[in-house]
Amino acid sequence: MGITGRNPVGIFLFLFLFISYFLSLFCQAANTITQGQPIRDGQTVISEGQNFELGFFSPANSSSRYVGIWYYSLPEKAVIWVGNRESPISDQSGVLWIGENGNLMVLDGNNKSVWSTNASIPSQNATAALNDEGDLILSGSDNKVYWQSSNDPTDTFLPGMRVQVNAEMGENRAFTSWKSANDPSPGRYSLGVDPRASPQIVVWEGEDRRWRSGHWDGRIFSGVPNMTGNYLYGFGLSDLENGSRYFTYTPSNAADKLRFRIRWDGYEEQLRWQKDTGNWSVIQSQPANQCELYNKCGDFAVCSASDSAICSCMKGFVPKYTDQWNKGNWSGGCMRSTQLQCQRNVSNIAEETDGFFDLMCMKLPDFPDLMVVDSDETCEGMCLQNCSCIAYAEVNGIGCMIWKRDLVDVQHFAKGGNKLRIRLAHSELVLPTVSSISCCKYKQDKPIFEASKSREFSTDLSGSVDLAIEGNETSRPELPLFNFNSVVIATNNFSEDNKLGEGGFGSVYKGRLPGGQEIAVKRLSRRSVQGLEEFKNEIILIAKLQHRNLVRLLGCCIQGEEKMLLYEYMPNKSLDGFLFDSSKQALLDWRKRFTIIEGIARGLLYLHRDSRLRIIHRDLKASNILLDEDMNPKISDFGMARIFGGNQHEANTNRVVGTYGYMSPEYAMEGLFSVKSDVYSFGVLLLEIITGRRNTSFRLSEYSSLIGHVWHLWHEEKAMELVDPSIRDTCSRDEALRCIHVGMLCVQDSAAQRPTMSSVVIMLESEATALPLPRQPTFTSMRSSFVDTESCMEGHEIVSSNDVTVTMVFGR
Ligand SMILES: *[C@@H]1O[C@H](CO)[C@@H](O)[C@H](O)[C@H]1NC(C)=O
Ligand SMILES: *[C@@H]1O[C@H](CO)[C@@H](O)[C@H](O)[C@H]1NC(C)=O
Ligand SMILES: *[C@@H]1O[C@H](CO)[C@@H](O)[C@H](O)[C@H]1NC(C)=O
Ligand SMILES: *[C@@H]1O[C@H](CO)[C@@H](O)[C@H](O)[C@H]1NC(C)=O
Ligand SMILES: *[C@@H]1O[C@H](CO)[C@@H](O)[C@H](O)[C@H]1NC(C)=O
Ligand SMILES: *[C@@H]1O[C@H](CO)[C@@H](O)[C@H](O)[C@H]1NC(C)=O
Ligand SMILES: *[C@@H]1O[C@H](CO)[C@@H](O)[C@H](O)[C@H]1NC(C)=O
Ligand SMILES: *[C@@H]1O[C@H](CO)[C@@H](O)[C@H](O)[C@H]1NC(C)=O
Ligand SMILES: *[C@@H]1O[C@H](CO)[C@@H](O)[C@H](O)[C@H]1NC(C)=O
Ligand SMILES: *[C@@H]1O[C@H](CO)[C@@H](O)[C@H](O)[C@H]1NC(C)=O
Ligand SMILES: *[C@@H]1O[C@H](CO)[C@@H](O)[C@H](O)[C@H]1NC(C)=O
Ligand SMILES: *[C@@H]1O[C@H](CO)[C@@H](O)[C@H](O)[C@H]1NC(C)=O
């Protein structure tokens, strides 16, 4: 360098630089307030790196003066902290200074303190410095920090700020909104942390929650799944050595100006300074939609922002106030439709234990308990241990969460979120209306969750609610008794025109009640003694049953020798009328057929298990499946059905009743019947629905039966050739093949190897279930020999729904 004593120009330059240096030092020293050096209104303090500025300001459209901190040199003044927010100064006579007790205070024109840091400071010589993180720090001559603005924040959470998360402290409402856009005094809203379970961010309105982020999973807040896609900043939960914890966030790019704040109108928002446009842009804001509003749909309901009716009850729950709910007033929420097994007094009827239903892509409910799961335990097991536990979830980074109170503030996300497993009575679990297994399906169809259908769904289950005590003749449920004359009028005196059909028991007529309701009247032939037995049987049985896939008995009529049963009228008559009529076959497209198969399966399942009475239909066949105006199937004709007691699994009869071709081998040959004989009949019926051919039509064919034929083609991997040609090209190949597979499992020789109806329902509806391989049926004609003593003797249900592994998959 040319700065030497011998060079006068050099000396001058040196002095110039020296003076400039001290001048600049002097200017930059203005980041500090010292005792005896007040800051008057109009003067400001600027942080060393010129990020922030401290001084007096007035909000927009206001003349009140406040001490605040804002970003230095940004054209749009963004105030991040206000001192005397509750006591403005009405003119420009205010002073900010450090008083004799070392505290920072704001004085008005009369020398009256309107705001003070209120710390007790032992040393007299305190200073306050504004740093480049927007923090005003008051320290004593001992260099100890006695107060800092970031510990006494207003409405803004800045990078580097620490928000305490201490369980002992409880909720920390660190930030309070302004009262209005021009009034910094504390408003109705606050923003902070609830440390319970795993910490989460909460926005409060007064004492009530308005929004919450969901629990911190170590990476993101679980209720804000799209935080995953954020590259602008990182959130962190730090643990201090003394045991206290705090949240901070840090911009990925240190030069970025980012801030969170709770706006005066209750919105939490995150802003970023946009250099190119010269203004603040909102990166995100919450509550972003109706579903983000806390518990928008009430308890036990799910909010889904992408649906037109955003609220729906969780599976197994129905609206608490249906009228309000249907009007769109969801605040009442939902209630459980079937008590949990663990909540009931278990009677001698062997009841299935409770299980779990999976809700995918959820914002998990508020207020979980965090459980420590030992190596010999599971989260599910811990939940089942306590009847108070009504749901659980296992989340990476959090662990096992269980809920023992109402499930509140639950939301369904189109993408992301967590799996919530809700505890339901067994009967709820085996009555899925639709596959809600995968995320995508849940989104597309989800009829379970439609408000309009919840009612219907609840009536579905009413059969399991107030059934009469089994075998108690005196407590038979009430069944309306119709007067004979009214039936005569309704059926136009049993005119030929009204006749719908005829069977061994008598004839069936169409009728119309005075109110206009159409009915079907089954009139027993007077001669039939057998018919009388079946008549009684049917009344006792069906009157107790209610399910959407069972035909509804409306009443009966007994007068002299006349005995009649009145049913709801099924305009589309029976399934065989469509299925085996070449002119109508095509009307049953694949969708309808699949719906019919599912409906029959559910109806049968209800009979077998969910009505509490174990009922074996014994005569399931296409002509006993009636179709309503929407082609929904209803199982009818309970004349041959039998009730089983709780522990009875099979029975023997000398009188084998049923229909050739639908009868299982053990029933046809040994008179043994059980739920598995119905499963067999269901299998045959299912294969008929797929093939569009009667099982009897194969009697003279190469394989002598439908089953033999199906097995043969299935075995040769030509199963698609089985599908009714009228729908073969338009059907869903996967569903059709799955149905055929399930059908093959149902018609296996061994009753023990056939699935139960609950397994069937699951297998039909879940694409992800791995199906076992069926054994080749040997009982393909009545003459075949049949040997399966083992299963017959034991008579246990070996295959239960628990054996079916349902693999949940996320939709893509
Ligand atoms: C201030 O007043 C003007 C005119 O009345 C209005 O347009 C503006 O929105 C106000 N600003 C705020 C922040 O209230
Ligand atoms: C305000 O009080 C301080 C001492 O507390 C005093 O030095 C100052 O003169 C007073 N100012 C006025 C205007 O009274
Ligand atoms: C200081 O104490 C006064 C009187 O107790 C109180 O009104 C004021 O809010 C306190 N200031 C702060 C910053 O806590
Ligand atoms: C107070 O602090 C200033 C600047 O740091 C220093 O010059 C002065 O000596 C201190 N006074 C006392 C009494 O400590
Ligand atoms: C732990 O240390 C921090 C920072 O020093 C302090 O703010 C906090 O109050 C301390 N917590 C406890 C429990 O001592
Ligand atoms: C920021 O400025 C751009 C361009 O001037 C404008 O389009 C945008 O609306 C502004 N955003 C806000 C939040 O004011
Ligand atoms: C995340 O979702 C919220 C609404 O829930 C939306 O406002 C925000 O823009 C989204 N952020 C990203 C990065 O997609
Ligand atoms: C909404 O329903 C609740 C009952 O769940 C009722 O108390 C409230 O008055 C209803 N609100 C309106 C606006 O009807
Ligand atoms: C459960 O059964 C016991 C004994 O039968 C009876 O004392 C009790 O009241 C019952 N509880 C309920 C809730 O029905
Ligand atoms: C079940 O949970 C409730 C509520 O938390 C608790 O009071 C009860 O002790 C628990 N019971 C068992 C058996 O753990
Ligand atoms: C049958 O039901 C009636 C009426 O509910 C009841 O009083 C009676 O005890 C029941 N009888 C049996 C054997 O359960
Ligand atoms: C109904 O028909 C029967 C015989 O078919 C007849 O005897 C009877 O009088 C008719 N009743 C009415 C009310 O028409």
Give a brief rundown of this model.
This protein is an alpha+beta fold and 812 residues long. The protein folds into five domains: 25-151, Bulb-type lectin domain (Agglutinin, subunit A); 156-288, no CATH class; 292-429, no CATH class; 438-568, Phosphorylase Kinase, domain 1, CATH 3.30.200.20; 576-805, Transferase(Phosphotransferase), domain 1.
Overview of this protein structure:
There is one protein chain. With 812 residues, the chain is an alpha+beta fold. It folds into five domains: 25-151, Bulb-type lectin domain (Agglutinin, subunit A, Orthogonal Prism); 156-288, no CATH class; 292-429, no CATH class; 438-568, 2-Layer Sandwich (Phosphorylase Kinase, domain 1); 576-805, Transferase(Phosphotransferase), domain 1, CATH 1.10.510.10. Helix content is 20%, strand content 26%. It is built from 16 helices and 44 strands. The strands form twelve sheets. Strands 25-24-32-28-33-30-31-29 form an eight-stranded mixed sheet. A five-stranded antiparallel sheet has the order 34-35-36-38-37, sandwiched between helices. Helix 10 (590-610) runs antiparallel to helix 12 (675-691), helix 10 runs antiparallel to helix 15 and helix 12 packs antiparallel against helix 14. The chain starts with 7 loop residues before the first helix and ends in an 18-residue tail after the last helix. 42% of the residues are buried. Residues 1-5, 21-29, 431-474 and 781-812 have low confidence and may be disordered. One 2-acetamido-2-deoxy-beta-D-glucopyranose binds at residues 321, 324, 329, 331-332. Residues 226, 229-230, 284, 288 line the site of one 2-acetamido-2-deoxy-beta-D-glucopyranose.
